[in-house]
Amino acid sequence: MAAAALGKIFLLALALVSVIIAERRSYNGYSVLRAKVDNLKHFKVLSTLRDESNFDFWSGPLYGKYADIMASPEEYPELTKLLNSHGIPFSFMINNLETVINQTDALAKTQAEMNWNEYFSTEANYAWLEGLAQNNSNVQVLNIGNSTENRVIKVVKISSGPSNATRPALWIDGTTHAREWISTTTATYVINQLVNNASAHRQILDNLDIYILPIVNPDGYEYSRTTERLWRKTRSILANTTCRGVDPNRNFGYKWSGEGNTINKCSLTHQGAAPFTEPEAQAVRDFILGSNVNWQGFIALHSYSQLWMTPWGYTEDLPRNYQEMMRVANKSVAALAAVHGTRFEAGSSANILYQAKGISIDWAKGVPNITYAYVIELRDTGRYGFVLPPNEILPTAQETWAGIRILAEEIAGVEQD
Ligand SMILES: *[C@@H]1O[C@H](CO)[C@@H](O)[C@H](O)[C@H]1NC(C)=O
Ligand SMILES: *[C@@H]1O[C@H](CO)[C@@H](O)[C@H](O)[C@H]1NC(C)=O
Ligand SMILES: *[C@@H]1O[C@H](CO)[C@@H](O)[C@H](O)[C@H]1NC(C)=O
Ligand SMILES: *[C@@H]1O[C@H](CO)[C@@H](O)[C@H](O)[C@H]1NC(C)=O
Ligand SMILES: *[C@@H]1O[C@H](CO)[C@@H](O)[C@H](O)[C@H]1NC(C)=O
Ligand SMILES: *[C@@H]1O[C@H](CO)[C@@H](O)[C@H](O)[C@H]1NC(C)=O
Ligand SMILES: *[C@@H]1O[C@H](CO)[C@@H](O)[C@H](O)[C@H]1NC(C)=O
Ligand SMILES: *[C@@H]1O[C@H](CO)[C@@H](O)[C@H](O)[C@H]1NC(C)=O
Ligand SMILES: [Zn+2]
């Protein structure tokens, strides 16, 4: 008991010291291990580990593929012992995480300039969006809500109008999960193509309104930029715990669960105390339901794993128009691959990733009944994972736009070859 109390005091002191000397969390000596998941026994062991431990599973376990697991230097012996004791083969995906993080820092640039060679702060992204709206009569910035820490949640509407209740519309959002920075840069690239390369996309713009929310979770994104690179959730304050944040992609109110590890407030996939506790998820819901818009498409951008997925996440059963969503998804992944040769897999979320309840595309399909709903897990397949270097921002955006364009053309009724 005395030892435990002393331990606690020591940890407290350590926490204080680390707050004072380093505002930014160090990932020095952290590794990310890739465990092979080539049989059902290993899949079950790793699923249980994900659900019952505090290990940060960057990805998976994906049956027949892999699980990527982050470990601090202190956790490393425990993790490798566990993997070895079950005969689960593993390799290093990332050796020293801090080295990679140091190469991918988001710049705190705030001028209204944009490029796709660097990551930018929320403020810099917003300044750019406002500039686009000032300069282009078909661009509007809509403030659809405020985050827990009172950051504005900004949607860009691109419309050659006139908008009405029958004109089809496509929704695209990014950075629901704070550490998935590549989803914001991909979203802003799409905005830039539609605004500054409009003549190449006339047919889409003439027949379709496009709404893009590049940063669903600005609190989490800023926290990831400034303090803890691998932060995933929102920054909401929870009752009876020092752990913070809810997984916004478990907080949507369709087949929201109340099961498993998502009840655990410290879990990376904490669902919240009830559906739509998070203002960020509320903002998306209220805007989609409150607007008099003919929503035909809903795309949620995430990373990583290179997957182009339809609902459902909550069940392995398939939604009513699965075949139609897959027909378009297959065309999208083919168009994507044609750009830089990057291979994506298409399928339903529960079948090719894993079951997850309360995800935004399930809500988009289940409640507003949006025809085409997809979650896209962008690059890569595990060289860098969440800490994708800046030189992959542009090619990722280019190829993803080629895939998204297929959907936009389908919805806009543009003839394709
Ligand atoms: C990462 O950058 C920080 C801040 O510049 C530096 O203190 C640290 O030594 C770097 N770490 C590695 C592993 O390069
Ligand atoms: C808007 O136009 C001004 C004046 O031409 C220009 O300086 C600025 O870069 C433009 N902003 C954006 C975001 O295009
Ligand atoms: C966000 O907060 C501001 C200032 O508190 C308020 O004026 C605005 O209405 C809020 N936005 C939404 C969409 O709730
Ligand atoms: C809505 O706008 C489209 C063009 O975007 C037009 O073809 C259609 O007739 C309009 N519908 C109504 C009800 O005004
Ligand atoms: C504009 O879009 C066309 C068609 O996708 C593409 O070929 C061209 O490279 C784009 N231009 C720029 C400057 O991105
Ligand atoms: C917090 O703990 C108190 C006392 O145990 C309990 O009454 C309350 O329901 C808890 N609140 C939540 C949100 O868990
Ligand atoms: C999509 O592609 C997969 C793999 O090539 C194929 O098995 C499936 O039948 C295709 N689905 C549709 C609806 O075209
Ligand atoms: C969803 O939309 C489809 C196509 O318009 C329609 O057939 C179906 O009845 C709708 N489902 C619900 C639950 O509203
Ligand atoms: Zn995600």
UniProtKB/TrEMBL annotation:
What family does the database annotate? Belongs to the peptidase M14 family.
Q: Where does the secretion signal sit in this chain?
A: 1-22
Q: Which GO terms describe its biological process?
A: proteolysis
Q: Which InterPro entries match?
A: CARBOXYPEPT_ZN_1 (IPR057246), M14A_act_pep (IPR003146), Peptidase_M14 (IPR000834)
Domain of life according to the entry = Eukaryota
* Needed cofactors: Zn(2+)
Please name the taxonomic classification of the source: Eukaryota, Metazoa, Ecdysozoa, Arthropoda, Hexapoda
**Active site residues according to the UniProt entry:** E377 (proton donor/acceptor)
Membrane-crossing ranges are none
Q: Name one GO molecular function term.
A: metallocarboxypeptidase activity
The species this protein belongs to is Allacma fusca
Swiss-Prot/TrEMBL keywords: Carboxypeptidase, Disulfide bond, Hydrolase, Metal-binding, Metalloprotease, Protease, Secreted, Signal, Zinc
Location of the Peptidase M14 domain = 118-411
Q: Write down the Pfam families for this protein, in alphabetical order.
A: Peptidase_M14, Propep_M14
Q: Subcellular localization, per the record?
A: Secreted
Q: Which Gene Ontology cellular-component terms appear in the entry?
A: extracellular space
Q: What is this protein called?
A: Peptidase M14 domain-containing protein
Give a short account of what the protein does.
Answer: Involved in the digestion of the blood meal.
**Is this entry keyworded Hydrolase?**
yes
Main subcellular location: secreted
